[in-house]
Specification:
The chain has 250 residues and is α/β, with parallel strands linked by helices. It has eight helices and ten strands. The chain binds S-adenosyl-L-homocysteine (SAH).
Length: 250
């Protein structure tokens, strides 16, 4: 069976994924550790994406070229931009755009030169399957994160949102920048640093791609508060629960 590629954005998340996997082998390529294993009987290669568009594109390309994955799923955290997105909500990407791509006036702003487009869609079937898994997990998160985390991070009724995610090589942590992004990409629900790069690589190879991002901050002046605690206690647990729920379905 061809393996599924799983990319995690942060160390804590990968560690949680590796605990869920039965790891069989580690292969070191391009300065990265790729972990082969099985999860609910499905062959998987899990890897840390590393932060930023170039690092994520290298990781995705290695997964495809060296490990022959036939689909790729990315989990991580993101800053919420859209109205009504709270910390602890989850965004399922339906498409990606690079908010810092700008080759104007040669090409329209955000258009990737020579691709003729700015937006890269995720795979509908794969995303629908992850949507069901995410909804199952969000219906009751306490068993996954514990009641203390529910209270600490106010996770009483987390919601799943679906739509556009904007990626760029910048941790957005000022209200000024947040407003600017909202103005240039009013439909973007969340901002992060890798997804659009992986979506472009997967489009190049014709590979199904899907991405789930837990909102860790509001991409404003408070964006760094409790970031590491949130990843450890909430986001990494959400990711594992959602991936597990997805993989256990036949
Ligand atoms: N201070 C953190 C920085 C990590 S970078 C640290 O020291 O570890 C942030 C990671 O989370 C990236 O993988 C990015 O995709 C995502 N992310 C979360 N919130 C973000 C935001 N507001 N802007 C950009 N990326 C964000």
């Amino acid at each position: 069976m061809t393996p599924i590629g799983i990319m995690s954005a942060m160390h804590e998340e990968l560690a949680a994924v590796l605990q869920a996997l039965s790891v069989e082998r580690r292969v070191h390529v391009a300065g990265r550790d790729f972990w082969h294993g099985h999860w609910h009987g499905r062959p998987v290669v899990a890897v840390l994406s590393r932060i930023g568009k170039v690092a994520a594109a290298t990781t995705a390309t290695a997964l495809i070229e060296r490990f022959g994955v036939d689909q790729l799923v990315f989990t991580g955290v993101a800053g919420g931009l859209g109205p009504g997105l709270k910390v602890g909500d989850v965004v399922l990407a339906r498409s990606f755009v690079q908010h810092d791509m700008d080759a104007s006036p040669l090409f329209p702003r955000h258009e990737v030169p020579l691709y003729g487009r700015s937006h890269f869609e995720t795979d509908a079937g794969l995303s629908d399957a992850l949507q069901r898994a995410a909804q199952d997990v969000l219906a009751d998160v306490a068993p996954h994160v514990g009641s203390e985390a529910v209270a600490e991070f106010a996770l009483q009724s987390p919601r799943l949102h679906e739509g556009l995610i904007a990626s760029g090589d910048r941790f957005v942590s000022t209200t000024f920048e947040r407003r600017n992004l909202q103005q240039i990409l009013p439909e973007a629900l969340a901002v992060e640093m890798e997804g659009a790069a992986v979506a472009q690589v997967c489009a190049d190879y014709g590979l199904p791609f899907a991405a789930l991002r837990t909102i860790s901050d509001r991409a404003d002046d408070d964006a760094h508060a409790d970031f590491s605690r949130f990843i450890k206690h909430v986001a990494s647990r959400y990711s594992v629960a959602m991936l597990s729920q997805w993989l256990k379905k036949p």
